Amino acid sequence: MGNTFGQLFRVTTFGESHGGGIGVVIDGCPPKISISKAEIQHELDRRRPGQSKITTQRKEEDECEILSGVFAGKTLGTPIAILVRNKDARPEDYSEIATKFRPSHADYTYEAKYGIRNWQGGGRASARETIGRVAAGAVAKKILSILYSELEIVAYVAQIHEIVAKINRSIVKAKDVERNIVRCPEGVAAKRMMSLIEHVREEGNSVGGVIECVIRGIAAGLGEPVFDKLDADLAKAMLSIPATKGFEIGSGFGATRMRGSEHNDPFEMRGGKIRTATNNSGGVQGGISNGEEIYFRVGFKPTATIAHEQKTVTASQEQTKLAARGRHDPCVLPRAVPIVEAMAAIVLCDHALRQKAIGLLG
Question: What integer is the mean pLDDT of 268-272?
């Protein structure tokens, strides 16, 4: 249960971090969509471990295999299965946690729920599970590019610990994000962030931060007015990503310090279209897109695995201590950027297909 996301565009991930592999089954993709292994691999390469000095040094190529649903470079309309095999797993690094619960991990809660857990790495709770999401996101992006020719989904690191970048979200481009290994488009802040991440790694510690995402080129009308609001589904998607602790869209919690006269977005005619003069709504009103830029922020906690010795208990309820082993990111944010984009694309694709199903697509 709980391994599938979406209504019409349905994504089911499978696999554990130190098992045979990680994969995804995508159901509901329309037929005759051109998609290549290279397009999927491009997104996976942005997520994979070992890509820079500030990420985990686990050596995985994360090469994808398309097992079904694609023939001669086009989707068949049948389920698409994509697999990435684990090649650099080191389960022996985790032998101590077979009986000890790591602080702020899912070890205890998984055992409480299922009565059994795969203690080799994080199992299903590992960020390695997101390989399937990123692969599915690549397919979703391709579908969306056909429906919306001007679509752009750009996520970037906006903050790490107390270092906050100054970024104009309305002009930032994907190429700006990929200019440095921390994926922050503001150069000065990026250098400070990289230095901080290296410093906390040397300390055996970790830091968190904020990723912002902006979506341009989506017409008004996507989203459902009650339980499947577009912003509600985006929130669910983002908070399902490992290590996330918060989500806000548009003005977010800042709206709590404003009056209605300050927060409301006045309507106006611009370029022959109904637009809003401001965008405190973040591109979504009443759970439905209004044609403006959709923008939101996702808060990530510090990586739970640190080298410091910490208090914990064993499965037999004995007090003990634990210092983590293994290879881990001192900060998850640089590699989380493509995951945020992928989940945004999956949500938008699902809602776009739902809108198309009722015969309306802006």
Answer: 95
DSSP 304: S
Contact call for residues 327 and 335 (beta carbons, < 8 A): no
pLDDT number for residue 57: 66
DSSP state of 302: P
> Mean per-residue pLDDT for 198-219?
96
The tokens describing 292, both together, are: 């403006």
Over its C-alpha atoms, the chain yields an Rg (Å, rounded) of: 21
Are the C-beta atoms of 160 and 193 separated by less than 8 Å? yes
Place of tokens 């077979």: 98
Q: Which ranges of the chain would DSSP assign to H, the alpha helix?
A: 37-47, 107-114, 130-147, 174-177, 187-203, 230-239, 260-263, 333-357
CA atoms of 158 and 216, how far apart (whole Å): 18
Per-domain residue ranges of the chain: 4-357
Return the pLDDT at 45: 94
The helix (H) or strand (E) run that includes residue 297 is strand 294-300
Bigger pLDDT: 58 or 72? Answer: 72
Selection from 334, 308, 343, 336 nearest residue 104 by Cα = 308
Distance in angstroms (rounded) separating the CA atoms of residues 177 and 197: 17
Q: How far is CA 299 from CA 93, 101, 161, 235, 246, in A?
A: 29, 24, 11, 11, 5
Higher pLDDT, 7 or 60: 7
4-357: CATH number: 3.60.150.10
Residues β-bridged to residue 231: none
Provide the pLDDT for residue 360.
Answer: 67
Distances (CA, A) of 334 to 51, 178, 193, 279, 324: 10, 10, 10, 27, 22
- Give residue for tokens 């650099």: 88
